[in-house]
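User: I'm curious whether this sequence folds into something compact or stays loose and floppy. Could you predict its structure so I can see for myself?
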Amino acid sequence: MRTPIMAGNWKMNKNPKETQAFLDGVKGKLPEASKVETVIAAPAIDLTTLVAGATGTPLKTAAENSYFENEGAFTGETSPKALSEMGVDYVVIGHSERRGYFHETDEDINKKAKAILANGLLPIICCGESLEQREAGQTNDWVAYQVAGALVGLSADDVKKSVVAYEPIWAIGTGKTATADQAQEVVAHIRATIKKLYDAETGDAIRILYGGSVKPANVKELMAKEDIDGGLVGGASMDPDSFVALANYQD
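Assistant: Here's the prediction. I'll summarize afterward.
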């Protein structure tokens, strides 16, 4: 049985003071991790506050990115080793904004996944197609290519622990949402791809999220689908009440 995940991705929003206000707003209101695992991915500048505030609560923490080297002359980058030492749990990699704005490649993302896992962290690996690719009927092939590229050289055990997030680019921050059936179709294809790359046990074990304008109003319909294990949520994760509603979607 896969434990659902509700993961917020704040992107480049909130400062440490606002992070503390969010933590105060969700305190005592999140489900136990065995029921629904809750995660917040915050900018690096907020992680010290986030990790300290999440300690002793069900909330887990994530960085929004890291480099694939532990240390060195890489000005402005974030060390996966340092993130691990801070007590961070997850790292989001391969987000379409990182791929698009900062020209990250599948090879970069694969290197990051390996470095993250080597440091005892877990990757949340993003994938997704553009509107043009969807309209051209390329969605399944493109997403499978991204997933396969991210997982090169990873063991089945590492893949089982990892998380994949399917985020159609055309539904991120646009107010558009893939229908629950559209999301399920692609997520099921990702699971089938992992079964083909590894085995049925690995494909059944990995948790796969949907992201793209997930809100309290549509989360139950998405979570009712067989293969969707949670959400990677942008704007709706920044308000404490909204995130609490998402996390408690089962109630």
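Summary: The chain has a mean pLDDT of 96. Strands lie at 5-9, 37-42, 60-63, 90-93, 122-127, 163-166, 207-211, 230-233.
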